């Protein structure tokens, strides 16, 4: 049974009669059972401009709750949904509200939009005791001017989720938010129109007809080969296939036809077209792919002054790894262009094998034929100083083949090579290379960003190991000193070691974050309705005995970028698996390390500010390591929190820090903020009853940045109570033998919310064997420094 209200019926119930004078009210659909009662018949502020014709119209104005629409039954989970169109004018936002208790307490989700911006920002927000805070923000590149966008806000217990056009963007868990309250509308700045407002059961998910793991735009050049775009078309259960149609608003520019569970788009001439996908059973369920067709590919003439020293791989290079990156060195920093493309052709028959375009794209990480891959948003063309890096799509180049590269002039602007303005690189310029004859064999795979090696990228070596080595076969990926700008994915490969040439010389880095690729992340099949590759630099799942040795992983995201938020360097997603990190460094500001299962960090450096060690783990031991709190680039007065534990069961040790040092340093970013004295807390709680705040510091040195109270318990900076509320020797927040950096015992008399262990109690968590005794159902695990993976 459909559980929703159409907008006309809802407004007839909820708005004053004078507003409805010119509105046609339709009869409710047969079988509709609304989930609302105690309907309010008043607006929150009768003085605010509010009018209705065929849609609900909200004029531009100051931030305010513009309408209260209904009272939801207590304890009911529900969603509120509406089609929203922004009106021309200043930037503004519109939130669909739920659980509205009063003007000072409610939750909401919606869009922040500006006429000049090619993106919209989806927010989840909470008004708590009169203070409005954004809990999650996600940006999407989407055409919004003059177009209705469907926003849905789900409230299921303490989990709040926002959808855009049927795609689930992100979820925030908010302790204490599951309370009864009204549905409403909040807006500020810009004017909006709303249509088809619905309230219903969140178990009934929206049907989605959209590009599978893809974006809502399509770019090509006139005359390019037809492109096949997989379509995810499923009913709300995510399993039942949904039939769909496709039409082009301008078939002379780009035509589109259905082919099985995909569409074929043929770019024909310069211009734009809307490719409209629609459900056969419910034509109101639609999605639009905005096709932009640029002028036809125009191969430039040969570069006039030669390219010696400017190309990588160099012209006529041999034995090039097939995962090679293309690099151009300019005389000065180039500007990224917005037109043209880079194309790679097979030399033997001029077959086009890859097209790389400027701007964001959705790409798969993993090997061809893998059961599930990691799909992420990325920009394949990057600029670092005077150099530009062009990242071909994975697995397009074969072993033992020769290729040539063509670059159109519009890809880069405002720069020269060897004294001549850049005008593109044509075939006659001779940028050719031949890949190595065969794939490597053996248990050690080498990676170097510019020297002789099996692979140019760490992910290229990972793909080879996952595809060609047995799951239990030990493999070591030996990485030479260099900088590797990439996101990594490991799935289903055990006994895998990534070992760097030196700790500071091997830097694997990227600026991935929750605003760009939201969520912790998970692999998926190619037919999934949206990409869920997540915000971490490295994501590993279903893998045991993964070792990260003698290297640095750095997520370069700054918290001062308000849209960024969480940004892990490592997400180890295996509840029963083991992770080892030795002699390694991990840098980020927020959520640096997220681990499940069992992990051992030995003589490592972990740097961050907010919850920079966290996860739903069982046991994680940080031994002889440095936990460095850095100044918050977004808030100079914040010292942050070291740990947020979500340990899966009360008996599990959780996060144990042994013989380690808690230090502080300047934050990243241009301001290099410092950590104020006494501003950093050892841990805070997520406030959930289903996980445990199991954290123990044993014989650790702590600098003056640690707050005298130690733990951020209930009421400290509005934090919730931990679970258990009262710590003991076996569970909760615990501490023993804490000293200053000089080795002198700390005065712990002001500690609040934690438990001070005795020497005998601390001994139970003071060895690897003790911390990991629960592994393998009690079989235990006792790793040793330098020990090879079994």
Question: What does this 3D model show about the protein?
Answer:
The chain is 4% helix and 42% strand. It has 790 residues and is mainly beta. It folds into four domains: 7-200, Exo-inulinase, domain 1 (Jelly Rolls), CATH 2.60.120.560; 208-294, Immunoglobulin-like; 311-427, no CATH class; 464-522 and 532-778, 3 Solenoid (Pectate Lyase C-like). The protein has an eleven-stranded parallel sheet, covered by helices on one side. It has an eight-stranded parallel sheet with strand order 39-42-45-48-51-54-57-60, with no helix packed on it. The protein is globular and about 75 Å long. Mean pLDDT is 89; it is low at 1-53.
Offer a concise description of the structure.
This is Pectinesterase catalytic domain-containing protein. This protein has 790 residues and is mostly beta strands. The protein contains five helices and 63 strands.
Structural topology:
Elements: H1 7-14, E1 50-52, E2 56-58, E3 61-71, E4 78-86, E5 92-102, E6 105-113, E7 119-128, E8 131-141, E9 149-156, E10 159-164, E11 167-173, E12 182-189, E13 192-200, E14 208-211, E15 217-221, E16 227-234, E17 244-248, E18 254-259, E19 262-267, E20 271-279, E21 286-294, E22 311-312, E23 317-320, E24 326-329, E25 335-336, E26 342-346, E27 351-356, E28 361-365, E29 374-378, E30 381-384, E31 387-390, E32 402-407, E33 412-413, E34 416-417, E35 420-421, E36 432-435, E37 444-447, H2 458-468, E38 475-479, E39 482-485, E40 488-491, E41 496-500, E42 506-510, E43 538-541, E44 546-549, E45 552-555, E46 570-573, E47 578-582, E48 585-587, E49 593-595, E50 597-602, E51 605-608, E52 610-615, E53 617-623, E54 626-630, E55 641-645, E56 654-658, E57 661-665, E58 681-684, E59 695-698, E60 701-702, E61 711-712, E62 733-736, E63 755-756, H3 759-763, H4 768-771, H5 775-778
Parallel strand pairs: 15-21, 23-36, 37-38, 38-41, 39-42, 40-43, 41-44, 42-45, 43-46, 44-47, 45-48, 46-49, 47-50, 48-51, 49-52, 50-53, 51-54, 52-55, 53-56, 54-57, 55-58, 56-59, 57-60, 58-61, 59-62, 62-63
Antiparallel strand pairs: 1-2, 2-13, 3-12, 4-9, 4-13, 5-6, 5-12, 6-7, 7-8, 9-10, 10-11, 14-16, 16-19, 17-20, 18-19, 20-21, 22-24, 24-31, 25-33, 26-27, 26-32, 28-29, 30-31, 32-36, 34-35
InterPro entries: Pectin_lyas_fold (IPR012334), Pectin_lyase_fold/virulence (IPR011050), Pectinesterase_cat (IPR000070)
Family: Belongs to the pectinesterase family.
Pfam families: Pectinesterase
